[in-house]
Specification:
By secondary structure, this protein is an alpha+beta fold. It has helices spanning about 1-35, 50-55, 75-85, 95-110, 140-150, and strands spanning about 65-70, 90-95, 115-120, 130-135, 160, 175, 180-185, 195-200, 205-210, 215-220, 225-230, 230-235, 240-245, 245-255, 255-260, 270-274. It contains 5 helices and 16 strands. The strands form 2 sheets. Strands 11-10-9-8-16-15-14-13-12 form a 9-stranded antiparallel sheet, with no helix packed on it. The chain has a 7-stranded mixed sheet with strand order 3-2-1-4-5-7-6, with helices on one face. The model is unreliable at about 1-35 (pLDDT under 50).
């Protein structure tokens, strides 16, 4: 009996040790997998006619800095340099094979000096200095990118997506090429809040602006009388509105708005966020 009892105890200890070893192995394997970036999107190339339309919708100019997220074989970046003559373009892709392929394609097109490709997780990359951001990702990834775009990218930056939208952020433009959707957003300046307008003749009025992405509404308070603003529009940094018959056009710069003189619009005015 004593022998039987000791053997049973030994078996219990061995069983506990085996279970603990399996648990530790599972933990370390899981940790390693968690720290390794995963390919979330199966590579599907964007048709060349869609690429051309994406760059056209964004009105890409030579001075733009184009960054393509999930750049695949590099066709958007290469087209931006070759066809739109941009001075700088960058592609970011998680798959090292795609990055190598893109670099070789850029070399074949003779644009490797301006079309650059990096391997890495796009969520760990800083793409905030792009003036045009292009992508062909899943909706779930677009939604993860949306707050990063709105918080980090300069107002006026153009965002173009093939096939997938950004949920409640309604695009500024939508087009179709061969049955494929293309969406364009322009990052809006942040204008929500109270603003004090001053004119060169000392006239002053207060604006109260509400904002949902690029869509704005508001009221004006002038000489104790409140009125609804009309003809409101926000396009990147440019804001337009009217107070009664008077139209205003300005450029938003942080907590200030500088008036822009135009046909039928007020001149020599500015505004400061209160």
């Amino acid at each position: 009996m004593p022998y039987s009892s000791d053997l049973s105890s030994l078996r219990s200890v061995r069983g506990l040790g085996l279970a603990l070893s399996l648990l530790l192995a599972s933990f370390f394997i899981g940790s390693a997998q968690a720290s390794t970036p995963r390919l979330d999107v199966h590579y599907v190339p964007t048709p060349h006619e869609v690429v051309a339309r994406m760059l056209e919708m964004a009105d890409v100019q030579p001075e733009d800095y184009v960054i393509d997220l999930g750049s695949g074989d590099g066709r958007i970046v290469i087209a931006a340099v070759r066809d739109r003559n941009v001075h700088r373009a960058l592609g970011i892709d998680l798959d090292p094979e795609r990055v190598s392929e893109a670099r070789e394609n850029a070399r074949k097109e003779g644009v490797e000096d301006r079309a650059v490709f990096e391997q890495g997780d796009l969520f760990q990359k800083d793409f905030s200095d792009a003036t045009v951001l292009t992508m062909y990702l899943l909706s779930s990834l677009n939604l993860r990118l949306k707050p990063m775009i709105l918080e980090r990218m300069a107002p006026g930056t153009r965002i173009v997506s093939h096939a997938f939208d950004m949920g409640e952020w309604v695009p500024d433009r939508h087009d179709e090429v061969g049955g494929r959707n293309i969406y364009l957003w322009i990052v809006p300046a942040r204008v929500a809040g109270r603003w004090q307008i001053e004119t060169s003749d000392g006239h002053a009025l207060t604006l109260m602006l509400d904002q949902t992405y690029q869509h704005i509404s508001g009221r004006a308070l002038e000489d104790g009388v409140q009125s609804v603003l009309g003809d409101l529009a926000l396009n990147g940094r440019e804001i337009r509105f009217s107070v009664g018959p008077q139209r205003y056009v300005g450029i938003v710069d942080g907590d200030t708005i500088v008036g822009v003189q135009g046909a039928g619009s007020a001149s020599n005015w500015s505004a400061r966020r209160m």
